[in-house]
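WP5 quarterly update. Target: Na(+)/H(+) antiporter NhaA. Source organism: Modestobacter muralis. Length: 436 aa.
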Amino acid sequence: MPSTLFARGSYREATRIADVLRKETVGGVLLMIGAFIALVWANTPWSAAYESLRDLRVGPSDLLGLHLDLSLGTWAADGLLAVFFFVAGLELKREFVAGDLRDPRKAALPVAAAVGGMAVPALFYVLVNLRTGDGALTGWAIPTATDIAFALAVLAVISTHLPTGLRTFLLTLAIVDDLLAILIIAVFYTSTLQVVPLLLSLVPIALFGVLVQKRVRSWYLLLPLALLAWVLMHESGVHATVAGVLLAFTVPVVRSDAAGGPDAGPGMAEHFEHRVRPISQGFAVPVFAFFSAGVTVGGLSGLGTALSDSVAIGIVVGLVAGKTVGIAGATWLVSRFTKAELDPELGWPDVVGLAMLGGMGFTVSLLIGELAFGAGSLRDEHVKVGVLTGTLLAALLAAVVLRLRDRRYRLVAEEEARDDDADGVPDVYQRPSAES
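Structure tokens (predicted):
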């Protein structure tokens, strides 16, 4: 294990992470706008129009035996989020194949924190709903996810300057979190399984993989295969977003030797990420938020009724307390059992603030809520209230803690930007102790 936790890593990786986070921040702002419009519309006299739009069914009802006459809300959850998880899969593979986290010792912390940040919220939710009955325990996975775009949007709003090490950790944590969430969805929220379509879906995924391994970038070849994989995965009963992750895992990260090898520039994964991320953050996620966040609260009395449901209480407790305990606790355990120490520029309040920031589980939490209780059901409405309330509380608490530390963060940011020799690389990355 490295002797230092939350070290800033290499300059190349820090630059890439900063670029990714800037794009995610823009996506987070659009996500917040989409959710805000949905909430306002759903609580006006025209709320019926919102529900009609969300439930409008489009698509062929019986094309070659396929059932694709889905509501717009379902198209957003099953279709658009497949794009989101495709990007998440690319990011994860990039980090663990060519990024700083290819070293298992460096990967241990974000992976442990992601596992802790999922296990503890789930445990808290189960404890709250242990005697509730009526299928409440089905929603155990709702508070387990972290929405990186929402978290970064909050950071932008409060104008805090997280050091590079913390930003890298937050992004990696959220990526691992997303992939664990999709695994949970595939294993625990697949109610019916059709084996033939599932096996057939592997054929276009394999063909897609063969083409990208040969460095084929032609969209007219790759896109039809991706769509076919999505359709077959959807028909199998496994959540169709799984297809996005599997497709992403087939994309090579580093350049081939014939193309110059790893040092010759961005590989296929970064090429696809560059092309698809704007679609994911600028369209797919905000549209999903628009169709999923619209809940008719019914004033203070309605809010009180929703929050009196133990399902909503369990979600709030899981997101606010569970995420904080899980992420910070896992980090402490890694430090305790590996004898690694925090970066000298950081302290445990920074870890707690970041753990609180992990309590914003908007996108994937809403998706799991729909899968657990059924889109549009009364309990799903309570899930939305719980997710929104827990996310808001986590954001407020994280903002307080991180703002109190922002003066320190500004000093670190100034140090990380200092380039006295004017060679284009900040001096902190050129010191003997800096990682290359």
